[in-house]
Amino acid sequence: MTAFPLTWLYAPGDRPDVVAKALTSGADIVVVDLEDAVAPDRKAYARAATAELLADLPPVPVHVRVNALDSPWGEQDIAALAPAPGLSGLRLPKISSSAEVTHVARRAARTDLYALLESALAVEQAYAIAGAHPHLRGIALGEADLRADLGVRDDTGLDWPRSRVIVAARAAGLPPPAQSVHPDTRDLEGLAASCGHGRALGFLGRAAIHPRQLPVIERAYLPTEADVEQAETVLKAAAADRGAQALPNGRFIDAAVVTAAQRTLSLARRR
């Protein structure tokens, strides 16, 4: 897996044919969904089909979004899939406390976990959740449920929760979160604009629900030539003088700026 995944493609767990296509889509990570994309009477089949898929190593990293812990299926999902050799991570929906993360970590030893925050309570608990357990590798928002919980009508109404989760991830030493999905799979212009806004907030990459969204997301999050040039200037200056300093253009640089420049050049290598 690339050091900085940018695209996370969801595929319904009860559609092995769609999952197979997702695995060849070019997404950095495929997320097999057992939750929202699967009807209640298909849950058991989706779990079994996913366990069969992950009995071997897939061609790209595969995460599984299990059902919520308080649902009739969540615990069964974890028990069936955590031991799978081909599993790269479990995505845990509707997490609202650190205790829920530690509970899953005990059930799924040595499995990387990713918490989805989908309520006002979860956002308020973001930092505690982010630091709940060493096996927690990332947090992200579930914006559809959060929007409903908050009664938000305009997209900008979610900017504070977005920033809250980004800050919590950074404070806990986790990677920058990926953006939540853009639900209109044909609105590629809107997707590009939304990704630009998300990048400005501090997100890195985005979840997708259709392969056509992947190149738009990648373009939005890859550094521009100007970004690369600036990063190279920062690293060159840092190599000459390890202390904090100001560049000829007046920009102040320190260790945090150097780290960001290194990430920019790492992303640029994907081109």
From TrEMBL:
Substrate binds at residues 65, 118. Its EC number is 3.1.2.-. The keyword Ribonucleoprotein does not apply. Residues 8-211 form the HpcH/HpaI aldolase/citrate lyase domain. GO terms for molecular function: hydrolase activity; magnesium ion binding. SUPFAM superfamilies: Phosphoenolpyruvate/pyruvate domain (SSF51621). This is (3S)-malyl-CoA thioesterase. It comes from Streptomyces chartreusis NRRL 3882. The lineage of its organism: Bacteria, Bacillati, Actinomycetota, Actinomycetes, Kitasatosporales.
